[in-house]
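If you are new to this repository, start here. Below is one unmodified record pulled from the training split, so you can see the exact layout before writing a loader.
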Amino acid sequence: MKKTIFFLLMTVLSSNIFSQTMGKVSEGKLIKSAILNKDVRYTIYLPAGYETSERTYPVVYLLHGYSDDDTGWLQFGEINRYADKAIADGTIPPMIIVMPDGGVSWYMNSYDGKEKYEDFFMKEFMPNIEKMYKIKAQKKYRGIAGLSMGGFGSLNYALKYPELFAAVAPLSAAIWDDNAIENTPTANWDRTLGQLFGKELKGKERLSTAWYDNSALKMVETKSVDDLKKVRYWIDCGDDDFLTKGNCLLHIAMVEKKIPHEYRVREGGHTWDYWRTGIIPALEFIGKSFHQ
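And here is the target side for that same chain:
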């Protein structure tokens, strides 16, 4: 009997200790958007202790890739499990991770005004999230990251709004130079980027103001060094990734302008295996920005 009681007691204690290191994930949350005229889903990770603590937390906005949704980083990236462990062992500070559903918007405003996701994110989503949750709503406690399409969006937001983000960590970011844009096959262009920059455009017709306003390479080229230095950059793309050239060119552009940044090329391609092994180093980099 004593052994049974002892076993039960140890089971309860172990369960309590384990639960104290686990964050909480909420899926299917909705924010009503007047700009997009619809409800937008998001998933949110709240670190262990959030519900009982009186403190406020830094935040990272984590953007999904093309064809995924707000659950991508949870379902395939297992972000809650990785974050729990990294927070528990002190690799990253306790943080709130917000994952909005970006659809196939590329997180931007389209050339014709039909898609206004960027306006939604900046004017409705981020302000409302930071009022609803215990978030330190200041630049120095705010980071952004994402993969592929989400890398495109996170990098563009950081470059366009350096007054809002302390650090950015694009993984396998969709970055293309002008030559790649000019030579994208028509079917691929119309299916993925045409709705945002203009369908049935060919060659140099695609190098429009709308494109340059959303090209990370053009923004690094044209923005002042002082503005670029307002954000800390972590760039990570696999050596077998079809997007590696664009990421290399971004690295070179930043080197030429003497913009401090971390550039990582690891073995791997455009896969969840690559992003799962890369997200904690990226969050660790962002987390260091939160330390005063």
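Two things worth knowing about this chain: The first strand starts at residue 24 and ends at 33. The beta strands are 24-33, 38-46, 59-63, 96-100, 142-147, 167-171, 232-236, 262-264.
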